Amino acid sequence: PGLTVPTLSSAGIPTSPTESLDLLNRKLNEAENSHQDLLMNKNRLEHDLKIKSNSLFIDREKCLSSRKSFPVVSLATKL
């Protein structure tokens, strides 16, 4: 008597505590998934950065002196 079935209002706003809790749990899940995606992207970018830093180190420390000794002549300058 006097109880109504909980429904979403026409604006999509929960009209009962249970609906509010369900909505908040869905939002929390979405936020946690987004956070995990961001952490994975961060790890991937950090890994890429380490590889590129290592490549630059190898180029600078191991190859630069060789390139200075043997200058490369571009094919475009020969034409």
UniProtKB/TrEMBL annotation:
Keywords: Cell projection, Cilium, Coiled coil, Cytoplasm, Flagellum. GO terms for biological process: cilium assembly; cilium movement involved in cell motility. Pfam families: Tektin. Residues 21-48 form a coiled coil. One of its GO terms (cellular component) is axoneme. The keyword Coiled coil applies. It is found in: Cytoplasm, Cytoskeleton, Cilium axoneme. Belongs to the tektin family. This is Tektin. The lineage of its organism: Eukaryota, Metazoa, Ecdysozoa, Arthropoda, Crustacea.
